[in-house]
Amino acid sequence: MTAVRIASLVPSLTELLVALGLREQLVARTGFCIHPADAVRDIVKVGGTKDVNLAKLRRLRPTHVLVNVDENRLDTVRALREWPLAERPEIVVTHPCGPQDNLALIDQIVAAFGAIAGVAERGADLRHAIERELALTRDSDHAAQDVLYLIWREPWMTVARDTYISRMLAQVNWHTLPALAGGEHGAARYPALHGDEPWLANVQQVLLSSEPYAFGEAHVALAQALCPNARVRIVDGELISWYGPRANAGLRYLRALAA
Q1: 74 with 182, same domain?
Q2: ω before 178 within 30° of 0 (cis)?
Q3: What is the extent of the structural domain holding 251?
Q4: Going edge to edge, which strands form the sheet with 231-235?
Q5: pLDDT of res. 2
Q6: Overall number of domains in the chain
């Protein structure tokens, strides 16, 4: 049987693989795959999520490559599928679009690697933990809020309502503006703002994410000018946007923010 060699091109998936006991099978990660720090420190980096060094990755001979629809480029996947058959890895495509999708994500990874000792058992434990947090995070327990979740500036960029982030926020009855769906993939999932949209006056809270743009205190006044009637807060983007095992802490974090 060929030894399993996994390349994860998604930070959340790297963390999930380690949580499932697959650290020894991980042979490649991106530079953004930073958690858990002690476990991933010695795993080879093959570029970023959008600019994978395919030649370096190929030399590592992965049997499986894990990707995500939002975080990786389609041309990366196409290039992997063009490798010679003897070197071509199995590509595991993921696309969780809400916190409940973590359950299916765990099932997907367990289906791929469950033959490895301990993976199925750890997957079941993690699944139960997320189910508990989801049951504790009820929108009916919190006052409805219209929020603007900012992920970038110059231009300002936010999230559509069918993204993982927006659906996480909806768990505590916080609803992102604009009230638009972005579709299965593409730029419309993360729309840019002009800054003069009339609905900005209706925003009750602006949430400045700590990633991918490193918003800090210096940006609070700028966001306040964008939405003069809103409360502006800096929030932990990893806890809100990372799926997999971090969803547990993320749901607890949101309950505390909304309290």
Answers
A1: no
A2: yes
A3: 139-258
A4: 174-176, 145-150, 205-209, 231-235
A5: 81
A6: 2
Task: List the strands of the sheet with 90-94, edge to edge.
Answer: 44-45, 26-29, 6-8, 64-68, 90-94
Confidence tier at 1 by pLDDT (50, 70, 90)? low
**Cβ(25)–Cβ(16) below 8 Å:** no
The pLDDT-based confidence of 174 (bands split at 50, 70, 90) is: very high
pLDDT 10s digits, 199-217: 999 999 999 999 999 999 9
Confidence of residue 175 (pLDDT cuts 50, 70, 90): very high
211 and 159, same structural domain? yes
Q: Per DSSP, which regions of 89-238 are E strands?
A: 90-94, 145-150, 174-176, 205-209, 231-235
Q: What are phi and psi of 228, to 5 degrees?
A: -65, -20
At 179, list the tokens: 């009230």
* The residue to which tokens 């370096």 are assigned: 56
Measured CA to CA, the distance from residue 49 to residue 232 in angstroms comes to 29
Q: Give the pTM.
A: 0.94
In a domain, 195, yes or no: yes
Bridge partners of 174, per DSSP, are 145
